[in-house]
Amino acid sequence: MIVTTPKKIPPMEEIGDEIYKIILPQPFYAPNNIYLFVDNDGLTLIDSGYIESVPMLQASLKTRGFSLRDIKNIIYTHNHLDHISSSLVLKSYAPKAVYYGYRAMQDGVGNYLDSMRLFEQATEDLFTVAFGDPEQLNKIISESRSGWENFYSKFDKTKKGDPILRIDKAIDHNDSLEIGDRLFRFIYTPGHNLYHITPVIQESGAYFSGDLIIANLTAIYSEMDGSLGDYHFTLSKLLEEPIKRLLPAHGHEIEDPMRTITLVKKTLSILEKGVIRRLKESPSDLLNLMEAAIGKKVHNGGHLPTALGLIYSIIKKLVLEGLIEIEKRDNGYEVFHLKG
Coil, strand or helix: which one is 260? Predict the structure, then answer.
């Protein structure tokens, strides 16, 4: 990958408590918030963005007199490609950087490209469950494959990339580590993702929540690497924390953390009741249940797998509770019936 200056440079702006933020656009989802700290010997980052965003990250750092080589520490909230895939090439441009992540993540992921191919297949399996119309299914799978090929091609074009995910310092739940000039505490916060952690600066009460909560909403990938049960547990755990600032990886800072976390828990309950109510009226499939609960707008902007995964996680919970049964068709398509 040739690292060049983009046409529009995202600013590296200070947002209080000696925290900086860079908003990196990406081709398939909402822009990523990269949080930074200026230390005596360089920079500490929380997440580093999509592989294609490296030039924008470099250009933004340059506006404050820094370069990629000034990056000394990178803390990863989790291993989704819009947060961590840039690390596959940053190892060459920031050779002294130390990478931090959840202990199980490195061994669990291994070859990052191979792990993303499994993720791609899981996405297609979810589409197969949801779309009963073969023509519509083929169209959505073709679009999905095109997006994934674009990602793989970005790595193939670089001569400095390494597909093996590297974690130098493994993190466990409730670890406290001095990184750069600050003391961080880490909370293991699964639900959105199996390896998700939340870095905390206890001195300021700043919690960097990754993808746990995005603009009062949630993202659970269900069949891929998320868990509705874990997510409920994580939200309850966060409600016990002395959170003063909740800084997500997408969107604006959460203004009222406790109220928002409580609202997300209530929203999940409302969605569950909505699924039951609609199945009382008639059997339905995943696509129609998702559109009734969230709306058709999610078909645009890369949100479709997230929305389907969220509703499917609710359906599986209700199946385990004996409230719903699944009618499986030969092609993988599923229709859901309310028991009784």
Answer: helix
